[in-house]
Specification:
3 domains, 9 helices, alpha+beta, elongated, five-stranded antiparallel beta sheet, two-stranded antiparallel ribbon, Chitinase A, domain 3
Length: about 240
């Protein structure tokens, strides 16, 4: 009935289509013949569309390239999963050894936990500093009260290199001086100091694991290059450069 390069549809397929779709046959013989012809025509048209969609990569070079790129991406993902991500997750001993060998790379500067208050009026900050120093346990109420006086508050862990920290600050527990910084007046209440040093693995495991994965990937790529001859098709390379420009 209709033949495609890689498959053939027969009248048996057509009648199966009619049964599946529960098509009712007209009683009038003439009408029936015309009706069957039209149904057959529609069926062939549907099958042509289906076949084209299922074999689009054979007729459209651009689409074929996209599919090939997608397949290669999936292959690369599977290889990365096997050689890098799963390897790093399962290799606890290797992660520990990597951490010990590269411990200095994970050294952190001195940090401190603090509340930072900033605003355009130095007098308002002086009032806040005085009230806070007397009753630090009322911090929540003081923040609410002084927000109404155009002060902004921030809380967290900081290092002296952070942008919101005045360069002249000498971090020590308690109240700081009031500094002019980034066009505002800034005051800090420092609660906790943490000296510079290398955190334990448990504290920075995610960061170490990420670095370990990068190392595994570099080792794997180096191994592939050592075991395989790599040649570049210059004409294709130049064509790709032109397309990307």
């Amino acid at each position: 009935m209709v033949k495609f390069p890689k498959e053939t549809k027969t009248y048996a397929n057509f009648f199966s289509y009619l049964v599946i779709n529960q098509v009712k046959t007209p009683r009038n013989e003439f009408v029936k013949n015309q009706w069957v012809k039209q149904l057959l025509k529609n069926y062939i048209k549907l099958e042509k569309k289906r076949y084209y969609k299922e074999h689009l990569d054979e007729y459209n070079a651009e689409y074929a390239g996209i599919i090939e790129e997608y397949k290669n991406g999936l292959l690369l993902f599977d290889l990365m999963q096997q050689k890098v991500w799963e390897a790093s997750n399962k290799d606890s001993l290797g992660l520990q050894q990597f951490y010990e060998q590269h411990a200095k790379d994970f050294k952190k500067p001195a940090q401190f936990k603090a509340t930072i208050a900033s605003g355009p009026d130095k007098k308002t900050l002086r009032k806040l500093r005085k009230a806070w120093s007397k009753n630090p346990e009322d911090a929540s109420a003081l923040r609410q009260r002084f927000r109404a006086q155009n002060l902004l508050f921030d809380q967290g862990r900081y290092s002296l290199k952070d942008k919101q920290i005045p360069s002249k600050l000498k971090a020590k527990p308690g109240s700081s001086k009031i500094y002019k910084h980034n066009g505002q007046y800034v005051w800090l209440w420092v609660e906790e100091l943490k000296p510079a040093g290398i955190p334990p693995l448990a504290e920075i495991r995610g960061e170490v694991a990420n670095a370990y994965q990068n190392q595994l990937e570099e080792n794997w790529i180096a191994q592939l290059r050592a075991e395989n001859n790599i040649s570049i098709n210059e004409s294709v390379f130049e064509k790709l450069q032109e397309e990307l420009e």
